[in-house]
UniProtKB/TrEMBL annotation:
Residues 16-146 form the Activator of Hsp90 ATPase homologue 1/2-like C-terminal domain. This is SRPBCC domain-containing protein. It comes from Streptomyces sp. R28. InterPro entries: ASHA1/2-like_C, START-like_dom_sf. Belongs to the AHA1 family. Transmembrane segments: none annotated. Pfam families: AHSA1.
Length: 152
């Protein structure tokens, strides 16, 4: 994984799974709930109207503390290669602002997928770092979910 400077987050990962499987895990609510969020967090519900202009709402439950929600609107939906959406918290922290997430998926020989993730622009370095930690852990769980060993 790599992270660039500034108040944007850039992550890259190669997943040992076909691009169509990775796209489904990124977009289908029942699959998303299996990997979404930092370690220790649960995803009790995920709702999605997967189309440009459609909205989504994801419930997140930390190990300790109250349930909270993430909401946004899909900007681009191009299965199985690209997905972008707005990202904002209901009842945001004063340092939060709406950001844009873009996920690009590149097929590598039909058996692996390069995932390129960007998010920004963040209001503060502290919020960018918090998202980096959360996405790094979540994408690690995604990798475990879609890897060949997970299906055996």
């Amino acid at each position: 994984m790599m992270c660039d400077g500034g108040l944007r987050l850039h992550l890259q990962r190669v997943l040992r799974a076909p691009r169509s499987l990775v796209f489904r895990a990124l977009t289908e609510p029942e699959e998303l709930a299996k990997w979404w969020g930092p370690d220790g967090f649960a995803t009790p519900s995920a709702e999605s109207d997967l189309r440009p202009g459609g909205s989504y709402r994801i419930a997140m439950q930390p190990p300790e503390g109250d349930l909270f929600y993430l909401v946004g609107e899909f900007l681009e939906v191009e299965p199985p290669e690209r997905l972008s959406y707005t990202f904002r918290w209901e009842d945001p922290d004063p340092e939060d602002r709406e950001t844009m997430v873009t996920l690009s998926l590149r097929d590598i020989g039909g058996t692996a997928t390069e995932l390129v993730f960007t998010q920004g622009d963040f209001a503060t370095e502290r919020r960018r770092a918090l998202h980096e930690e959360g996405w790094t852990q979540g994408l690690g769980k995604l990798e475990e979910l879609v890897s060949p060993a997970a299906s055996t």
